[in-house]
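Re: weekly structure request thread

Next one in the queue (446 aa):
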Amino acid sequence: MTMPVEILELNQFNHELFQFLDASPTPFHVVQQQISRLEAYGFERLDESQQWSLQSGKRYYVSRNNSSLIAFIYGTDDIIQTGIRMLGAHTDSPCLKVKPNADIISLSYLKIGVEVYGGALLNPWFDRDLSLAGKIVYQTKKQQVKTLLLDFEQAIACIPSLAIHLDRDDNKNRSINAQTDIPPVMMLIDPQQSTVDFKSILLKQAKKQNPLLDIEQILDYELSFYDTQQASNIGLNNDFIASSRLDNLLSCYTGMQALMRADTKTTSLLVCSDHEEVGSASSSGAQGPFLKSVLERIAGSNEILSRIIDRSMLISADNAHAVHPNFPDKHDANHGPVINNGPVIKVNANQRYASNSETAAVFKVMAQAAEIPVQSFVVRTDMGCGSTIGPIAAAEIGVKTLDIGVPTFAMHSIRELAGSKDSWYLFKVLQKFFSSEYSVNISDQL
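Done, posted below.
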């Protein structure tokens, strides 16, 4: 039996999404993966330290800290009239980052000291097959300082649970001490062997990955542990996709795919920022100057940029909380998004999300054109609300903004769950957003 073309396209889209997720254990790897795909589509690298000479109809990208990326199409139509269609996402996810002095030797075991990055859900990190990846900074034999991406690509550590026999109340009241309970166990140390330390392990792995590497010593690193289980479809009817880092690499990948397929008439831009999970306050985060700097260089002057921004719109794409069938009381009864029922418009009266009636209306028109469903999310009034890069970008740039996301279970867990259709739905509507056929401006009749 032949499958409908739409189903085949959806399955292929998710298959390539899984490949992207599996190859992107850290923000540095996310940007590396994005660059390889963007260059294959004709995007040209820009250097922040050099003068830019942008040409209409061409595609460009620029990265900062190798963990944040902006890619854009410099449209052929008058940018002052069309504005810029912008999509924002973030490259980082909650994780366990290795401390500078990581070695912990206890009872002949080598454990690795870690710090919790972001609002991680810690319980699911126990008893998982963990690997390690990130960036190292090293010195060559010629005294040069260079960087290198590192990935062990196999399970090298675990955080073993304490047996139920030793803590009978574990299932009733389990609390986790982030300092003492979660250092991953990496290996047994043989007392007869020479001393083993963490940097020597990294040095060995670096030479294994790059046999010809000129490296004398490792100076520093930014490394984090990750789950080796690959992304996959699950569910009796393959209704779900399960993976680490769905928040927010699903949005990074989907936005990238939509931008790569956008026409070259309207200027369109994708910004994927690091450090969202810890507040975005960094040189490469959304609260830093990266996006504004690029927009200023595209516009050429503050006067022109102000006129462009007035006709522009930014969509902040960051996963949303799906209504949980085991905990429905955690949601507003009228605003509980359901998986595989389309992307979610996020609304908050206190501006934790930047959506307003106009930006929501524009998105709904494009969703109708793409023939996909749309949902709304408002947190319970008696509960706190998270936030995204949306309000930050709106405040920093002054652009009208919409917050959306794909409904997700187990957000900030080591393994999250989303709908197998929703990534495709998001892709379809973002294609409309980047299309010159649709306007993002609403006539002011007030």
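The CA atoms of residues 205 and 378 lie 47 Å apart. Residues 95-227 form a domain with the Aminopeptidase i, Domain 2 fold (CATH 2.30.250.10).
Next request, please.
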